[in-house]
């Protein structure tokens, strides 16, 4: 890989040990991936923030880096934490967990990363928004797939630590999804049924992620999803199958035509999705018990989703002993307050919760055993992230609300 | 006695030579969850090396799986002086590469055929240069 004089100086340690290690990591990745050079980025998304997933090793590492006084060179935002950073007490988060979580967010903050704690940094209220064709360094699988597919920006699937390293250097190795020729579709997916609402799209993504191999780029035909539905479609397929980029014919920016989507790349066209396929995902995550918690917001809710939830909850009351969380970014929560949605949700007995979500909060330590979600990604992760201690069901928003409200 | 010498690509270099004993698994490792942070012991029930300790060993593993936080676990082990002496893998993934580099743990990538020549308990010498590294083992 070609290195500039300045990059060689960093590798020689002239700018300290953290930058040296960061650049060493990027050049090694570049060497193994046959990248020709490093290219500049100006935006990053950093995962590995919830103390539940990141744990003590991450706290040690980030505090260690903070002591070295290194700062990010990009606009860098943090993934969800394990709790709302201000109102954790009222949610029942254990005290020692909260203490570690606050320490970790503070340490990340010292590196110059915005502690906004959301997996949807690209939504307008939040403001870490990659442009079409822009090269960025994102981790968080659902954000990676959204900015690649829907915004037409370019990122590889980073982990927390290499996203951090690239934010320190302000560059990433030039390979993979950064290159146009690697972004054409590899599988045509014919959707042969009608889909209704976000959860159906989430289930479609989840189904497809399981069907296709590592590194495949699906091109969907026969659907017209909204922006919110596209987010759920991508998140589902990124959870079950590591999909980092998809196209929807006539909808997403790199697939306005068939030629656009596939170029000269050879592709398979054997996959057809029927209603039965979608239904198998709902059956995989069915729950007969009354839920202790119903959680929306995986990925974090947009303002449109919150509006929809508020409208369905208007004039209704959530049953006793069931908690109802609408998880979102703090900036979106504030907008929901301005627009009056918070009041309706609160009146019904629910809460809008910032900074965290059902997947990364320590729900297994909060007397929660049965959860219902509207996202296949959340349904996939909840049992896994709680070592099987919490059961999870999957329902549409409408069915969730119907099941837990009285008139 | 026959000498087996295997060449690999260096991920994290090391000044000077290393001599140690091999611990080998044929399963992909999730450093988060499979390894006890306070001891370096493999605690995964379904691991073929459950109960063994990776600390101070020349640790051969095919690849990694699971959470990217695994990288931070490697850093944590190194900070407590509980890291393997040398990491040797077939598949250089982001998780292990970033853990090795930030934890300053020497790491080599070797080919499938070379990987198959070693087993747990083998005494090995490692020579690690800037780009290339070698594992040498006397086979009896």
Percentage beta strand of chain A: 5-15%
Rg on CA atoms of chain A, Å: 21 Å
Oligomer: heterodimer
Named CATH topology of the largest domain in chain A? Aconitase, domain 3
CATH architecture annotation name of the largest domain in chain A: 2-Layer Sandwich
Number of strands of chain A: 16
Q: Most extensive chain contact? A: A-B, 25 and 24 residues
Q: Indicate how many domains the architecture of chain B comprises.
A: 1
Low-confidence stretches of chain A: none
Q: What is the topology, as strand order, of the major beta sheet of chain A?
A: 13-12-10-14-15
Number of strands of chain B: 7
Q: Give the rounded overall mean pLDDT of chain B.
A: 92
Overall geometry of chain B comes to: globular
Description:
The complex is a heterodimer of chains A (407) and B (140). Chain A has 407 residues and is of the alpha/beta class. Chain A folds into three domains: 176 residues, Aconitase, domain 3; 99 residues, no CATH class; 122 residues, Aconitase, domain 3 (2-Layer Sandwich). Chain A is built from 16 helices and 16 strands. A five-stranded parallel β-sheet of chain A has the order 13-12-10-14-15, sandwiched between helices. Chain A has a four-stranded parallel β-sheet with strand order 8-7-6-9. Chain A has a three-stranded parallel β-sheet with strand order 3-2-4. In chain A, α9 packs parallel to α15. The termini of chain A are far apart. The mean pLDDT of chain A is 96. With 140 residues, chain B is α/β, with parallel strands linked by helices. Chain B has a single domain, classed as Phosphohistidine domain (Glucose Oxidase, domain 1), CATH 3.50.30.10. Chain B is built from four helices and seven strands; from the N terminus they run ββαβαβαβαββ. Chain B is globular and about 40 Å long. Chains A and B meet through α2, α3 and α7 of A and β1, α2 and α3 of B.
């Amino acid at each position: 890989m070609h290195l500039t004089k300045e990059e060689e100086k960093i590798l020689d340690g002239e700018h300290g040990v953290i930058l040296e290690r960061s650049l060493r990591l990027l050049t090694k990745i570049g060497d193994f991936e046959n990248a020709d050079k490093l290219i500049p980025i100006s935006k990053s998304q950093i995962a590995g923030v919830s103390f539940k997933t990141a744990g003590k090793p991450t706290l040690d590492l980030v505090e260690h880096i903070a002591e070295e006084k290194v700062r990010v060179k990009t606009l860098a935002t943090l993934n969800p934490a394990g709790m709302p950073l201000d109102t954790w007490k009222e949610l029942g988060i254990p005290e020692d967990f909260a203490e570690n979580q606050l320490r970790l967010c503070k340490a990340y903050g010292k590196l110059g990363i915005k502690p906004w704690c959301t997996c949807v940094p690209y939504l307008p209220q939040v403001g870490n928004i990659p442009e079409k064709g822009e090269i960025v360094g994102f981790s968080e699988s659902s954000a990676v797939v959204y900015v690649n597919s829907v915004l037409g920006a370019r990122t590889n699937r980073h982990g927390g630590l290499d996203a951090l390293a690239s934010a320190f250097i302000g560059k990433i190795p030039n390979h993979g999804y950064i290159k146009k020729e690697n972004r054409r579709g590899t599988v045509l997916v014919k959707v042969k049924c009608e889909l209704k609402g976000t959860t159906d799209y989430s289930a479609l993504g989840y189904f497809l992620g399981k069907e296709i191999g590592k590194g495949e780029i699906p091109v969907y035909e026969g659907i017209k999803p909204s922006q919110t539905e596209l987010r759920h479609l991508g998140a589902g397929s990124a959870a079950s199958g590591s999909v980092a980029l998809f196209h929807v014919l006539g909808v997403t920016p790199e697939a306005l035509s068939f030629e656009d989507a596939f170029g000269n790349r050879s592709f398979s066209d054997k996959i057809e999705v029927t209603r039965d396929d979608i239904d198998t995902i709902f059956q995989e995550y069915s729950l007969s018990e009354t839920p202790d918690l119903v959680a929306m917001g995986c990925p974090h809710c947009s303002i449109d989703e919150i509006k929809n939830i508020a409208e369905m909850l208007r004039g209704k009351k959530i049953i006793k002993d069931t908690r109802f969380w609408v998880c979102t970014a703090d900036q979106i929560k504030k907008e929901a307050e301005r627009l009056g949605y918070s009041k309706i949700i609160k009146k019904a007995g629910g809460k809008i919760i910032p900074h965290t979500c059902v997947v990364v909060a320590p729900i297994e330590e909060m007397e929660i055993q049965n959860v219902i979600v509207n996202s296949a990604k959340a349904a996939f992760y909840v049992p896994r992230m709680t070592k099987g201690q919490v059961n999870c069901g999957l329902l549409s928003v409408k069915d969730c609300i119907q099941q837990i409200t009285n008139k | 006695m026959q000498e087996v010498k295997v060449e690999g690509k260096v991920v994290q270099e090391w000044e000077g030579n290393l001599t140690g004993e091999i611990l080998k698994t044929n399963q992909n490792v999730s450093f988060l969850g499979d390894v006890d942070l306070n001891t370096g012991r493999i605690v995964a029930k379904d691991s073929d090396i459950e109960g063994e300790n990776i600390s101070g060993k020349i640790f051969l593993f095919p690849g990694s799986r699971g959470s990217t936080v695994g990288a931070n676990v490697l850093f944590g082990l190194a900070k407590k002086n509980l890291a393997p002496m040398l990491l040797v893998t077939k598949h250089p993934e982001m998780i292990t590469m970033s853990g090795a580099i930030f934890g300053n743990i020497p790491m080599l990538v070797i080919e499938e055929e070379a990987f198959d020549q070693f087993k747990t308990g083998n005494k090995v010498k490692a020579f690690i240069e800037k780009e290339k590294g070698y594992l040498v083992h006397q086979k009896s």
